[in-house]
Description:
Its EC number is 1.1.1.86. There is one protein chain. By secondary structure, the protein is α/β, with parallel strands linked by helices. 56% of the residues lie in helices and 11% in strands.
Amino acid sequence: MRAYYDQDADLNLIKGKKVAIVGYGSQGHAHANNLKESGVEQLRVALRPGSKTAQKAEQAGHTVVTPEEAAEWADLVMVLVPDELQVSLYTEKLAPNMKEHAAIAFAHGFNIHYRLIEPRPDLDVFMIAPKAPGHTVRNEYTRGAGTPALIAVEQNPSGQAHDVALAYAAGLGCARAGVLETTFREETETDLFGEQSVLCGGISQLVRAGYETLVEAGYQPEMAYFECLHEVKLIVDLMYEGGLRNVRYSISNTAEFGDYTRGQRVIDEGVKERMKGVLEDIQSGRFAKEWVLECQAGQPQFKAERRRWAEHEIEQVGEKLRAMMPWMKEGKLTQE
Ligand code: NAD
Ligand code: MG
Ligand code: MG
Ligand code: MG
Ligand code: MG
Ligand code: MG
């Protein structure tokens, strides 16, 4: 895989452009603020009229406009609204107003890869996808570092899409850490697979099952919470710094022996078989179709699951325990 760094990017390619950031959430606030501090002077944030977030963006010194106004004005429109709202945003607000030969960019390939959005042929279409939550993209930039990012080009009538995407990534601070080249297909499918089977779906179920096993066996819920949820971070930090080997180096020999002999009893080959099924749903478009239909129906299953998980005892126990550890609040990603 080819990695690009600051010396490979020409920041002037993005500094010279009128850049509109649509959405000011997790990614949006990071993109707008990082690009501005990197010298992109002609920058506007686009939000729906009356949006509560507009105040936050204005307080940070941004000019806030509507998506239609942004589309008419911009050379480059970065779409950072939730994936499930992008189709109507593009068809109703952006496509009818964007200048001829402008560029449209995304931070995730979902809508382009599954052809839910089919951009006008005159537009450059590319992706800059930081491999981190927006708050990390912002915090790393502020301390002079960066998060890695992926770039990909889908449509390139100008012939400049790749270089502009790389310049944009550099403006986000991502070229300090490394920018990797991929395709919309690869980014979309690996992103969905990772979050469904390991990062979000996998770990939530693992934590829940471990917690319930201990509590059902009569152990105190607080003990179960510490062992099966709280300590996950300590292990993941070691993993992040030096891989699985670093975890094994740091844990006791007793823990390491249990890891080798019991881990595969819990996560056996059947798990991998089922992961292949999850991947097939992604590759075939079955998952995408299900999510689109769920959204069209007003997200009934999605909302019910959210409620069910929020009511799980592990959340109440966690809230109580975290209140006893006030230092954890520092630097916390608050839910606003
Ligand atoms: P978010 O939910 O945090 O923020 C969405 C923003 O869009 C909000 O400011 C909201 O007010 C605004 N918005 C909603 N509808 C709008 C409309 N019709 N017009 C204008 N503004 C509107 O979203 P997010 O998590 O930052 O995700 C944005 C994109 O970034 C998605 O494509 C996502 O897949 C991608 N992404 C997100 C992360 C992440 O860290 N959350 C990481 C990588 C990629
Ligand atoms: Mg969210
Ligand atoms: Mg991801
Ligand atoms: Mg994702
Ligand atoms: Mg322990
Ligand atoms: Mg050891």
